[in-house]
Each structure stands twice: as structure tokens, then as C-alpha cells.
From TrEMBL:
<keyword id="KW-0812">Transmembrane</keyword>
<protein>
    <submittedName>
        <fullName>DUF2975 domain-containing protein</fullName>
    </submittedName>
</protein>
<dbReference type="InterPro" id="IPR021354">
    <property type="entry name" value="DUF2975"/>
</dbReference>
<keyword id="KW-1133">Transmembrane helix</keyword>
<feature type="transmembrane region" description="Helical">
    <location>
        <begin position="134"/>
        <end position="151"/>
    </location>
</feature>
<dbReference type="Pfam" id="PF11188">
    <property type="entry name" value="DUF2975"/>
</dbReference>
<feature type="transmembrane region" description="Helical">
    <location>
        <begin position="171"/>
        <end position="190"/>
    </location>
</feature>
<keyword id="KW-0472">Membrane</keyword>
<feature type="transmembrane region" description="Helical">
    <location>
        <begin position="21"/>
        <end position="40"/>
    </location>
</feature>
<feature type="transmembrane region" description="Helical">
    <location>
        <begin position="93"/>
        <end position="114"/>
    </location>
</feature>
């Protein structure tokens, strides 16, 4: 009886279907809540009244509900909530952009994971395409970690520019080390896939 190659992975049909279902449900939720609903709000299909965003405030910010006469209100202490009574198209787009961007990247991650899962179904994850897919996931996660805070900063600055609350809001980008480390870990995993693929090719060449 021939031994199975070292790179073969035991993966039964039930595990495969369960993981594909989980990825499908997750992708559907992201598509609905992080992409579709914000886009509908931008287009005015759903109610945009009272739309707002949580923002950091300057140390000197002590006023509450500033700027209400302009249809924009600010309340809070170190963290505040900027709200727009009746946001126009530009304001709705600026409010939705970071969330839609994040949702789109998460959908890319879900799709690439789905493609990797399909190779697990045949017990052979060490294929060249999986190394590229894992690198794509790493790039998406790192983009989310770096570009999302920058988008928050830029869009917040545009939202409060020229308003009564502009001097109260601290327009800054806050980065978290967790997503960056996750992206680097996935990049390392992509390298493992690449080396595994090369090792498999070398091993098969000796047969």
C-alpha cells in the first residue's frame, strides 16, 4: 500500500461544506451591512437623517451640541459624536466611504479564502495559486490596517471643514498594531505556502 504524500491533507466533505457555508454567510453579512446598506444611504434610498460619526476631540473641547444651527452637532468629551441633521450627498458619501472600503477588502479576503478552501477539499493546499492568494489576503489586511485610519482622518477633516465644530474636532489617524501583526503573519503563511509548493515540486521530481 502506497503511503500518502506528506503534503496531502485529510479534509472530509462535512468540514469542507461547513467552512464554505461559514465563509458564505460571513461574506453575505459583510456585503449587506458594510457595503450595500451604506451605498443605499449615500444614494438616499434609505433614511440618512441623523447620520454621524464618532470622532476624537481636542483637549480644549468642552462645548456640547456646538454648531447645531448649521445642521451639524457635536457632543461628548474626549470622544465626540458629530451628527448631521440632514446630510447632503457629499456628506453621506464621506460618512460611508471608510465603511464601504473596509467591506470591499473583507469581501476580497473572503473570496480568496474560499478559493483556498476549495483546494483543501482535494487535500492539496500546496499549490502555487494558494501562495498568491495568501499574499493577496496579507495585502488586503495590511491595507485595511493602514488605509482605513487614513480614510477616517481625511473624510472626517472634510466633513467638519468650515463648520462651527471644526476647531473642536481632532483630525487624526489612529493605527492599531493588531491588524498590522495579523497581516504580517498571513504574509509569513504565504511564504510557507510558497516554500511548500517548491518542496513538493522538488520531491515529485525525485520520483
Amino acid at each position: 500500500m502506497n503511503a500518502s504524500p506528506w503534503y496531502r491533507v485529510e479534509w472530509d466533505r462535512g468540514d469542507h461544506l461547513a467552512l464554505r457555508l461559514a465563509l458564505g454567510v460571513g461574506a453575505a453579512l459583510v456585503a449587506g451591512f458594510a457595503v450595500l446598506i451604506p451605498l443605499l444611504e449615500v444614494l438616499g434610498v434609505t433614511s440618512g437623517d441623523g447620520a454621524g460619526r464618532t470622532v476624537p476631540l481636542r483637549a480644549t473641547a468642552t462645548v456640547a451640541d456646538a454648531g447645531g444651527a448649521q445642521g451639524i452637532a457635536l457632543s461628548g468629551t474626549s470622544q465626540g459624536e458629530v451628527t448631521f441633521a440632514q446630510p447632503d450627498l457629499t456628506q453621506r458619501a464621506l460618512l460611508a466611504l471608510p465603511e464601504v472600503f473596509s467591506g470591499a477588502l473583507l469581501l476580497v479576503v473572503a473570496y480568496l479564502l474560499y478559493r483556498i478552501v476549495r483546494t483543501l477539499a482535494v487535500g492539496d493546499p500546496f499549490v502555487p495559486d494558494n501562495a498568491r492568494r495568501a499574499r493577496g489576503i496579507a495585502v488586503a489586511v495590511l491595507s485595511l490596517a493602514v488605509l482605513r485610519p487614513l480614510l477616517d482622518m481625511v473624510t472626517t477633516g472634510q466633513l467638519v471643514l468650515g463648520t462651527a465644530v471644526e476647531d473642536q474636532v481632532s483630525v487624526e489617524a489612529t493605527f492599531s498594531s493588531g491588524p498590522v501583526l495579523l497581516g504580517l503573519l498571513i504574509a509569513a503563511l504565504a511564504e510557507v505556502f510558497r516554500r511548500g509548493t517548491r518542496l513538493r515540486a522538488d520531491t515529485e521530481g525525485l520520483v
